[in-house]
Amino acid sequence: MCGILGKINYASGAPVRESELKRPLFEMLHRGPDDEGVLTDRNCGLGMRRLKIIDLEGGHQPVFNEDRTIAVVLNGEIYNYRELRRELEGAHRFSTNSDTEVLVHLYEEYGERCLEKLNGMFALAVWDARRGELFVARDRAGVKPLFYADLGGSLYFASELKSLLAFNGMPRDIDQQALANYLSFYYVSSPRSIFKHIRRLPQGHCIKVAGKKAEIRQYWHYRFRPHRMTEADAAARVEAALLSSVKRQLVSDVPLGVFLSSGLDSTAIVAMMSKLGVKPKTYTVGYEDGGTYNELAEARLVAKKYGTDHHDCLLGPADIIEQLPKAAHGFAEPHGDWTYLAMGHVSAQSRADITVALTGAGGDELFAGYPTLTAAKVGRFYQYLPGPVKAAIRAAAERLPVSTRRLSLDFKVKSFTRGAAFRPEVAHMKYKEILTPQDIKALLPGLKHADPFEVFAQHLPAVASSRLLDRLLYLDLNVFLPYCSLHATDLVTMFNSQEARVPFLDNEMITLSEEIPLNLKIKGFTTKHIIRKALRQYLPEEILKMPKKGFNMPTGQWLKKELKDFARDSIAGARARHPDFCDYAYAEKLLQDHLDGRSDNTRKLTCLISLFLWQTEYL
Fold first, then answer.
1. How many CB atoms lie within 10 A of CB 519?
2. Which of 38-52, 408-422, 430-444 has the highest mean pLDDT?
3. Strands 147-151 and 199-200
4. Range of 535's domain?
5. DSSP 168
6. How many CB atoms neighbour CB 423 within 10 A?
7. Each residue of 298-310: pLDDT tens digit?
8. Nearest to 353, CA basis, from 256, 261, 490
9. Which residues neighbour 64 within 8 Å (Cβ) at sequence distance 6 or greater?
10. Residues 66 and 192 in one domain
11. Disulfide: which of 37, 145, 436, 490 matches 61 by Cβ 3.0-4.6 Å?
12. How many domains does the chain have?
């Protein structure tokens, strides 16, 4: 586990100096406090920071082949490296026990097709000195991040945006479309970043720099290819695949544990670990005066059942005030979903005990866990209602009392009626919309942008399925999961020099989810049906029957009390530094309406406060 970066002057062929890499490397010291490696060869330079997980003594990077003509730097883990090594040992000599060295010899044998053989989470770079070529790639699901900039005949890349910005002369022009997308959904999605000249390498993509050009291509994408199978067969396959996935991801030379919530996915991981004879340390976040937002009691049920060494990690408003500005600095672009602070808090609390944490990310996207999917089912019937009936429903929704309770009726009904008027794919994203087009126009009247929904629509032509729910799952898997969830998880855990693993996004689990029919993923209005069926024997009944809660915090309540002054100060600080950036009075009105109980503006406020903290530092 590390951070990687590099630069190649492909047009001019000018040499890359080691000094050019030093400051960018320093900016991601947290990703790898254990070691540093640098390679400069003619017009190419590679750098890495290492967090020791596997082969603690022998895994220094870059790793070379026998004649040192091929070098690799890797961020992540290759879970099938032992099997791959056995295939390669007859033809290659190994000098370490690391997974990175397997990549070197795999590339020698298969070139770019080596990606087809990898099961892991990774961002990697290969320098082929024989051909003078650079090859950069990112894993299938997008667990590990990679940013790049193609400027003036030079390609730059890095694991973190802040590190890429540290290269001399890197421009910081704002991408107005990315800003609009952020305001609509409170995160920025591939291929954009908040900076116009910096891009995200999409998941399942690679870049080859050869001759005087850099080309990007997609080497993998998710495909719906349902097989005929009974419910019992599907459940058995899910159980077997999850067990083998967890077993693969337990490989580590340092202590590991589990981030445990009350949800099916993380509890399933604990159950599989127990079946493998492992009693892990488990960590659950809770909230001061959290009420309906707390999952501590439910998580303790699982911890007690499996005898884990369990720890509660309490988060309060003071932690938000302390950590949010630091996160705005570390992310180097705004991210408005503050639940990542809860993940970061658990990471910080657990880091003294464990270096690797298993999480349940990915289960909802692969196996239909989100309530927006059931909303889409209801929406198909809603479309056929007479206009006056729809109008009456919308009017009734607007009269519901405002609530900041977790997934309140007020929130769910208003989200549904706001989105149901649109075509289903747009409605699916409207349910998740933060600032409406009207909000954005009022806040930034001069912002030039296209419809923010274009960032999602670009994925739909690749969906080899006409089923609506398949198309919605594809959007969640290709947009929300990698760029809201996985990206934030990677950053906040790596801020603490900790590796987060995701067993549900193992290749075997992804392939199985492609094959399981939709009617077994969501049955009637029961989400994640086949997961519940597969795990019935392992989990407490309370967990199996619990509806999807989502990962939420009592932020709305805190904004009315302990975070009120922090919110006001964030707006005032941004106005003082950049008075012409936006209409700050509109943000103040959103806050006042929230404080007065006229509307629940929690998500709009977290989106804007994060933006203001970011702009104060980076504009």
1. 14
2. 38-52
3. antiparallel
4. 231-315+338-368+493-545
5. T
6. 10
7. 899 999 999 999 9
8. 256
9. 70, 71, 104
10. yes
11. 37
12. 2
pTM equals 0.92
Task: Give the helix/strand (H/E) hosting 283.
Answer: strand 281-287
The angle that helices 264-275 and 296-306 make with each other, rounded to 10 degrees, is 10
Question: From CA 353, how far away is CA 143, in angstroms rounded?
Answer: 23
Supply φ then ψ for residue 511, to 5 degrees: -60, -40
Instruction: Please tell me whether residues 236 and 100 are part of one structural domain.
Output: no
State the amino acid at position 567 in one-letter form.
Answer: A
Tokens of 580: 């012409």
Token pair 């459940």 is found at: 235
Calpha distance 378→366 (Å, rounded):
21
CA–CA gap between residue 366 and residue 504 (Å, rounded): 8
Question: What is the torsional sign of CA 98, 104, 105, 109?
Answer: positive
Tokens of 155: 């390609």
135 domain-assigned: yes
Structural contact between residues 390 and 442, judged by C-beta atoms closer than 8 angstroms: no
Do 285 and 258 contact (CB within 8 A), yes or no?
no
pLDDT band at 453 (very low <50, low <70, confident <90, very high): confident
Residue with the bigger pLDDT between 139 and 59: it is 139
Query: Pick from 3, 179, 129, 13: which is nearest to 75 by CA?
Result: 3
Concatenated DSSP letters of 10-44:
TTT-PPPPTHHHHHHHHTTGGG-BTEEEEEEETTE
Name the more confident of 351 and 539: 351
Pair (209, 261) in one structural domain = no
Q: Domain check: are 170 and 282 in the same one?
A: no
Residue 123 has pLDDT above 70, yes or no: yes
Q: State the amino acid at position 109 in one-letter form.
A: E
The alpha carbon of residue 405 and the mean position of all alpha carbons in its chain are separated, in whole angstroms, by 25
- Are 217 and 485 in contact by the 8 Å Cβ rule? The answer is no
